[in-house]
């Protein structure tokens, strides 16, 4: 009969661990064991080593040609990132004089499980974690485990929702009390736990539970500063987050898409279902800094509920800045924080297109010039915010119109990108300046943009027609009207 350790650790990795162990004692601990007893797969493995944990990790990384990262020099902790996103291997030096002592210092009993790599295959479970798993109970390893490390409060929410566990009353008290200490905890650790809760395709109930326990405003205090009454603004954001999860479920971001629970979501499947694969690829892509686009979309949704945030306004600009600042304070990369800002700032733009009645290539070009790669998230958040504001049964005609705008924008990005979003350059700036007898400057840049918009509209196709259009703009004095046209369209959305 195959040993449990051989079931949980890939043969190549297990062989290397035994080859390099020397006289070290090594235990597989935590999540992999917990998930095994729940019938779940777990690609990430955690090991406790009695000594030399980081040096063992480095040896494995070299043999596996995998990434190596030091996690904590003082605790002798390191991570191996397996090739092709096959998972991670974390190594840490044992705390205390025995594995039982080490497990007693962990967060929750369901994670305080260990299995030695050598010797008798005996599950080490000093705190009754396996029974707690059977009873679906989340219990701290000690009465002050969460208060000693407030980041564990966020982990408690994630485990409770993901694994369907109930918190003991004493656990709830600890989690609530830990909220006041969260902003004093290391920002990187808060970020890592919080971002795991921000995939709206899986975590709607987790965000609600965070809010109920006082953790959401502890991590994002600005949510009580959204325009309008503080509770109403936060409630609109939470509702938008939930509608976002429902949309992503129908678009295949959670499993293969479930049965639509109402007519509004059924219309989403009918009109937008063909974009499922493209949307999944786009939203699961990692932004510079490591987080997925869908997580940043979830972050942005939390800042979308204030009054006046659904249109171009000072309120929208200030809330977008608040969202970006919170991202930076949580140690997101500048690229990630800017992506969040762009989504919050621009999610009113599809409404402008809906109200303008003009959906030519030029308007589509301007939309994606303003939103960039965040444009897809902007469209999805627009739909989620629309559902949140229109109730669960919006007027069919109004809802179909909004989905129609989304479909047109998705078609432009995914199917007509080279024509509408990124039309090929027909003429360089210095060539255009020479042809028109102008000096290089901002006017040339504006004319080049006018040419690209005309390309997107199908009115310009080659170098000669580009020069002709630019000359016509100059002669008619319309060179500045492109910016004015965008302002006019925004005014129609007010």
> What number of domains?
4
Low-confidence stretches: 480-494
Spatially, the strands of the biggest sheet line up as: 3-4-5-2-1-6
Number of strands: 8
Shape: elongated
Distance between the termini: 70 Å
Structural class: alpha/beta
**Beta-strand fraction estimate:** 5-15%
Q: For the residues shown, what is the average pLDDT?
A: 86
Q: Main beta sheet, described?
A: 6 strands, mixed
Number of helices: 27
Radius of gyration: 27 Å
- Indicate the percent of residues in helices: 55-70%
Task: Give a structural overview.
The chain has 494 residues and is α/β, with parallel strands linked by helices. The chain has four domains: 4-135, 2-Layer Sandwich (Beta Polymerase, domain 2); 136-219, Orthogonal Bundle (Hydrophobic Seed Protein), CATH 1.10.110; 242-420, no CATH class; 425-492, no CATH class. Helix content is 57%, strand content 7%. It is built from 27 helices and eight strands. The protein has helices at 4-8, 11-20, 31-37, 53-64, 99-104, 129-134, 145-148, 151-163, 169-178, 187-196, 204-212, 216-219, 230-250, 263-272, 276-283, 293-301, 314-329, 334-346, 349-356, 361-371, 375-390, 396-414, 417-421, 429-436, 442-457, 463-476, 481-492, and strands at 26-29, 45-49, 67-72, 77-81, 88-93, 114-116, 137-138, 166-167. It has a six-stranded mixed sheet with strand order 3-4-5-2-1-6. Strands 7-8 form a two-stranded parallel sheet. Strand 3 and strand 4 form a beta hairpin. The longest helix has 21 residues, at 230-250. The chain starts with a helix and ends with a helix. Mean pLDDT is 86; it is low at 480-494.
């Amino acid at each position: 009969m195959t040993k449990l350790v051989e079931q949980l650790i890939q043969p190549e990795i297990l062989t290397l661990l035994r080859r390099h162990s020397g006289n070290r004692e090594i235990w597989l601990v935590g999540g992999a064991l917990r998930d095994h007893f729940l019938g779940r797969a777990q690609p990430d493995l955690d090991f406790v080593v009695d000594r030399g944990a980081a040096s063992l990790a480095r040896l494995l990384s070299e043999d596996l040609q995998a990434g190596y990262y030091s996690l904590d020099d003082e605790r002798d902790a390191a991570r191996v990132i397996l090739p092709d996103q096959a998972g991670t291997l974390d190594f840490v030096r044992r705390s205390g004089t025995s594995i039982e002592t080490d497990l007693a210092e962990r967060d929750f009993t369901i994670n305080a499980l260990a299995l030695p790599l050598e010797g008798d295959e005996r599950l080490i479970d000093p705190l009754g974690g396996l029974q707690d798993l059977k009873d679906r109970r989340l219990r701290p390893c000690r009465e002050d485990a969460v208060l000693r490390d407030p980041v564990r409060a966020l982990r408690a929410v994630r485990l409770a929702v993901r694994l369907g566990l109930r918190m003991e009353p004493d656990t709830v008290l600890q989690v609530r009390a830990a909220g006041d200490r969260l902003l004093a905890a290391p920002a990187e650790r808060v970020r890592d736990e919080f971002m795991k809760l921000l995939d709206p395709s899986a975590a709607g109930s987790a965000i609600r539970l965070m809010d109920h326990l006082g953790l959401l405003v502890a991590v994002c205090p600005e949510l009580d500063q959204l325009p309008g009454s503080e509770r109403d603004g936060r409630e609109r954001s939470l509702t938008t987050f939930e509608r976002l999860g429902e949309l992503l479920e129908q678009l295949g971001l959670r499993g293969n898409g479930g049965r639509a629970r109402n007519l509004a979501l059924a219309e989403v499947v009918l009109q937008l279902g063909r974009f499922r694969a493209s949307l999944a690829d786009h939203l699961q892509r990692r932004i510079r800094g490591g987080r997925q686009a869908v997580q940043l979309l979830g972050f942005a949704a939390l800042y979308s509920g204030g009054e006046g945030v659904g249109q171009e306004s000072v309120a929208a600009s200030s809330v977008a800045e608040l969202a970006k600042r919170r991202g930076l304070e949580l140690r997101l990369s500048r690229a990630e924080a800017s992506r969040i800002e762009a989504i919050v700032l621009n999610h009113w733009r599809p409404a402008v297109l809906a109200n303008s009645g003009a959906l030519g290539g030029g308007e589509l070009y301007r939309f994606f010039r303003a939103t960039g790669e965040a444009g897809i998230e902007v469209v999805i958040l627009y739909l989620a915010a629309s559902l949140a504001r229109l109730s669960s049964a919006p007027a069919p005609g109004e809802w179909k119109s909004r989905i129609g705008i989304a479909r047109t924008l998705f078609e432009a990005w995914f199917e007509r990108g080279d024509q509408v979003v990124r039309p090929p350059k027909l003429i360089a700036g210095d060539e255009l300046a020479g042809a028109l007898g102008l000096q290089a400057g901002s006017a040339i840049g504006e004319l080049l943009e006018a040419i690209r918009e005309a390309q997107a509209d199908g009115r310009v196709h080659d170098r000669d027609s580009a020069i002709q259009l630019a000359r016509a703009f100059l002669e008619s004095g319309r060179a500045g009207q492109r910016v004015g046209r965008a302002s006019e369209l925004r005014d129609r959305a007010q």
